[in-house]
Amino acid sequence: MTHSEEEFEAGNGVFQLERNGLVDRVSDAWRDMRASTRRLLREKPSEGRLIFYVLVSDMVFFASWSLKTLVAPASIAGGVFSADKIGLLMMAALMLRTALMYLFSLLVQIFAKIFKGAANWKETRTAVFWGAFVSAPFGLAAAVIAAIMGMYEPVMPFLGNKWLALPVYWLGLIPFVWYIAAGTAEAHKFRMTSPTFMAMSLFALVLTVATLLVGAGDMFG
Q: Signal sequence: where (predicted)?
């Protein structure tokens, strides 16, 4: 036992004994993402553990977009994906999205270093992948809301209005950006989270508009 009665060392990392369950860790992150990221960074997680976080968020992404585009799609999402292309959506979620998360974390690392960030790429990946994992339930909740709206659209046509329906489709993007921004700010020792969040929000907005313009908006969420 080292440091205190509540901590122990394993490999190169320092682990806390209390609230070690995954549900506890996620709920702690919802309350204080910076503290949660700080704890995870001290543990020095393996690459396999980081990939686990990404793959779980990939599966939630897949479930979310399946709900929004296949199970109970609103009229604005009709025809985005047909049932016979469900395999394509899963491949995109598990392979393409995972690769994009690595690329995204590298871009975050490069820009953070420009502003004197203190983390290396492994630490940035830890923050980004943990943020994606922590925010995944919010994306699923947004998908459930969108699916419910799609179910009731035939009897309440106003639910199909694009100004009402589209924000719900992208609602899960807000916590996704926020938790990744908070984790990144902590990893790079930035004093404030809000500038990182605003920069990532602008990047996400540009990326979303660009993908919509090329007809690939269904691949992100």
A: none
Cβ-proximal residues to 1 (8 Å cutoff; 6+ apart), any chain = 7, 8
- pLDDT for res 1: 42
CB 48 within 8 A of CB 125: no
Helix, strand, coil fractions of the chain, as percent rounded to 5? 75, 5, 25
pLDDT at 35: 96
pTM: 0.82
Burial per residue of 44-75, b for 16 or more beta-carbon CB atoms within 10 angstroms, e otherwise: bbeeeebbebbbebbebbbbbbbbbbbebbbe
Residue 174 burial by Cβ neighbours in a 10 Å radius (0-12, 13-18, 19+):
middle
Cβ of 181: how many Cβ atoms within 10 Å?
26
Report the candidate in 94, 90, 122 with the shortest Cα–Cα distance to residue 109. Answer: 122
Q: Specify the DSSP element, H or E, that contains 71.
A: none
Using 70 as the pLDDT threshold, list the residues of the chain that sit under it: 1-5, 8-11, 68-89, 92-93, 158-166, 169, 207-221
Residue 113: half-sphere exposure toward Cβ, Cα within 13 Å = 11
